[in-house]
Structures are given as C-alpha cells and as structure tokens.
Amino acid sequence: MSKISRLFKGGGSAASRGRGAPSPQEALARLRETEEMLSKKQEYLETRIERELAAARQHGTRNKRAALQALKRKKRYEKQLSQIDGTLSTIEFQREALENSHTNTEVLKNMGYAAQAMKKVHENMDLNKIDDLMQDITEQQDIAQEISDAISNRAGFADEFDEDELMAELEELEQEELNKGMRDVRLPSVPSTSLPSRP
C-alpha cells in the first residue's frame, strides 16, 4: 500500500498518538465535523431570519414595536450568519492546508530517501546546499502559517443597528402590506339601468 493511500485510509503512527498530538486523519475528521455543524447552524439561522421577516411583515402596520423587535432579531441572526460564513472559510482553509501539509510531509520523506540514495551515489555532495534548501522550506512554511493566522482573525461587526435603516425597512414592509390590501378591495359595480331624466 502506498504512503498516499495510507494517508487517506486512516491509520497514523502509534508514536504520534502516544505523544498526545492528533494524527492528521483525526484532525481532518474533526474539521469536517465542525464544518458540518456550522452548515447546520447556517440553515437554522436562515430559517430564523425568514421567520423574523415574516413576523415583521405580520406586525408591520398594527404593532410597530413588535415589528421593530422582529427586525432587530433578524439583524442579529444575519450578523451570526455572516460570522459563521467567515469561520467556515477559515476552517476550509485550515483543512486544505492540513491536507496539503500531510501530503507535503510524505513528499518530503520520500525526497529524503532519494537524497540518501543520491548521497551514496554522489559522495561529494555539498551539505550546505541541503541546509539552505531546508531553511527555505521552513521559511515558506512559516509564511503559510502567518497567512493562515491572519485569515482566521476576522474583524468584529458593530453591535448596534442603524435605527433609520430599520425604520426604512419597516416602512417598506408596511407599504407592501398596504399594496396587498388595496389589490383585494372590491368596488361596487356601475348600475346597468339608465338614470331618470330631470323633471
């Protein structure tokens, strides 16, 4: 079985489990579970947003306070949904980086074996060049980690909602309700008989 096959079929070394560090397969499984949980939370929040919007429409003209409260809840849910979107992006990035890192580790191991074979073939190989190569690889890994850290720190959102924006949204909902009501109004029909002439 190839090393790449073992990577995706599970396993992991007993030594890495003995040290307490999770294997790449365990970490990937947990990241996928977290992605699934956050996706369910997204669906839940989208449903709640729709409910609050429906409640705001229902209370629109009759109970402004209840309509405003529903719109505030809707805004909070939208904020949470936006945060989950960012978190999911970060987790996906981390999962992909972990998959790539694990693959790169296997590639580096194989490159190490090849380097040993080359050393036997080429007794006069310059070890300083190998050190320089490894330093370059370490430097690139540090840069990748810094990028990952920067992406995972999302900027916060303001906690307050713009009351003017909420009022404008409420007025829009009220106008929709009025327009619906006007469509349902039935006017009396015009009499079909002629009117009497003036005496």
From TrEMBL:
Q: Enumerate the residue ranges of region (Disordered).
A: 1-30, 177-199
GO CC annotation: what is one?
ESCRT III complex
Biased region (Low complexity) positions are 14-24
Q: Which UniProt keywords apply?
A: Coiled coil, Cytoplasm, Endosome, Membrane, Protein transport, Transport
Q: Which InterPro entries does the annotation name?
A: Snf7_fam
Q: State if RNA-binding is listed as a keyword.
A: no
Q: Which Gene3D superfamilies match?
A: 6.10.250.1710, ESAT-6-like
Biased composition, class Basic and acidic residues, residue ranges: 177-186
Membrane topology qualifier: Peripheral membrane protein
Could you say which residues form the signal peptide? none
Q: Which GO terms describe its biological process?
A: late endosome to vacuole transport via multivesicular body sorting pathway; protein transport; vesicle budding from membrane
Q: Which family does it belong to?
A: Belongs to the SNF7 family.
- Protein name per Swiss-Prot or TrEMBL: CHM4C protein
What is the protein's species of origin?
Crotophaga sulcirostris (Groove-billed ani)
